[in-house]
Design goal:
This protein has two domains: 4-175, 3-Layer(aba) Sandwich (Peroxisomal Thiolase, Chain A, domain 1), CATH 3.40.47.40; 182-334, 3-Layer(aba) Sandwich (Peroxisomal Thiolase, Chain A, domain 1). It has helices spanning 27-30, 52-71, 91-96, 113-126, 141-148, 202-221, 237-250, 262-265, 281-297, 315-319; strands at residues 4-5, 9-11, 17-26, 40-42, 80-84, 104-107, 132-139, 164-165, 168-175, 182-187, 230-233, 259-261, 278-279, 303-311, 326-334. α7 links the parallel β11 (230-233) and β12. With 335 residues, the protein is of the alpha/beta class. The protein has a seven-stranded mixed β-sheet, with helices on both faces. It has a six-stranded mixed β-sheet with strand order 4-3-9-7-5-6, with helices on both faces.
Length: 335
């Protein structure tokens, strides 16, 4: 069987198994509707460290330990770690795993990093280059705000289209064998740039990329939205989700009854003051690694399409007047 199907979908002969998943989040996320699914909630935004950046690394490191414990595997069994975050040079991940003594591949796909890691991890296992892999991502509200927008002390007013960067991380253990949902195929996304320049409207920057990837995936496999129990985007928020559904309708695809977004699931949009919902690498990573995995275990889900979405923005390029490119990677997972 050919591994590439259609224009950009990769089919896996040796379908990797998601052996376990774990997530640790911050207090605001712990006050949200998915609180009971997370492995731990950190009330201290510093997580016992001296800086927000060190806190993010600590949360990611502890999440990995939780996922490893739940998988029944030892650290020595892991052949490669694939992880990333939003910080410059992906330092949250590299500092989290600097003592792991395991091959490390740092990734940057902005908020698409979780599905990016699942795609690459699956390729490595399917190709025989790894038996077990860690796929993980993290973000932190405080570190992201001061890097991409304003220092917290500035107290800037948030726009109606703004989203709240999730403090948290998610990690899964992929294996060549075992029990759990299988990753059947993946559709890596193309960079799509529709000229959005507003750093407080990530949903609008990412929705066209999600539309392009989902459309390509369905075309490559000859499927419709009805072939999935759930089409789960990463962190488009309420505005981006509405935009995505409108764009899909223009492409002749109605997925409104199948689509949900991690950014609108992780928070209560009416009560928690998060405007359009959650964002950040940790948003889709935490929701997918715990809540979605729980739905598979309960038998509520049989087949989903998980599309983490990323705004590939740079504060420097934004200040130079550049637009914000978007990317989205899709992973098909079956019970």
């Amino acid at each position: 069987m050919a591994k590439r199907l259609g224009s950009q979908t990769v089919v896996f002969d040796k379908q990797p198994i998601i052996l376990s998943g774990a997530a640790i989040v911050g207090k605001k996320e712990g006050d949200g509707p998915l609180a009971r699914y997370f492995d731990d909630v950190v009330d201290d935004e510093y997580a016992g460290e001296k800086t927000f950046e060190a806190a993010e690394s600590r949360i990611l490191k502890d999440t990995f330990s939780k996922a490893l414990e739940k998988s029944g595997k030892a650290a020595a069994d892991i052949n490669v770690i694939l992880a990333g975050d939003l910080l410059n040079q992906s330092t949250a991940a590299s500092y989290a795993f600097r003592d792991a003594n395991t091959p490390f591949i740092g990734l940057f796909g902005a908020c698409s990093t979780m599905s990016e890691s699942l795609t690459i991890g699956s390729m490595l296992i399917d190709g025989g280059s790894a038996d077990y892999a860690v796929c993980a991502a993290s973000s932190h509200f405080c570190s992201a705000e001061r890097q991409f927008r304003f220092p917290l002390e500035y107290g800037s007013q948030r726009t109606p289209t703004a989203q709240w960067t999730v403090t948290g991380s998610g990690a899964v253990i992929l294996g060549k064998d075992g029990q759990g949902p299988r990753i059947v195929c993946a559709t890596p996304g193309k960079i799509i740039d529709q000229g959005i320049k507003d750093a407080n409207n990530m949903g609008a920057a990412m929705a066209p990329a999600a539309c392009d990837t989902i459309t390509s995936h369905l075309k490559d496999l000859g499927r419709s939205a009805d072939d999935y129990d759930l089409i789960l985007t990463g962190d488009l928020g309420s505005f981006g989700s509405s935009m995505l559904n409108d764009l899909m309708i223009k492409n002749g695809i109605d997925m409104k009854n199948k689509h949900k977004d991690c950014g609108t699931l992780i928070f209560d949009l009416e009560k928690q003051g998060v405007n359009c919902g959650g964002s950040g690498c940790g948003c889709s990573a935490a929701v997918f690694s715990t809540y979605i995995m729980n739905q598979f275990r309960q038998g509520a889900l049989k087949r989903i399409l998980f599309i983490a979405t990323g705004a590939l923005m740079s504060p420097t390029r934004s200040q130079q007047g550049e637009s914000i490119p978007g990317v989205a990677h899709a992973v098909c997972i079956e019970a």
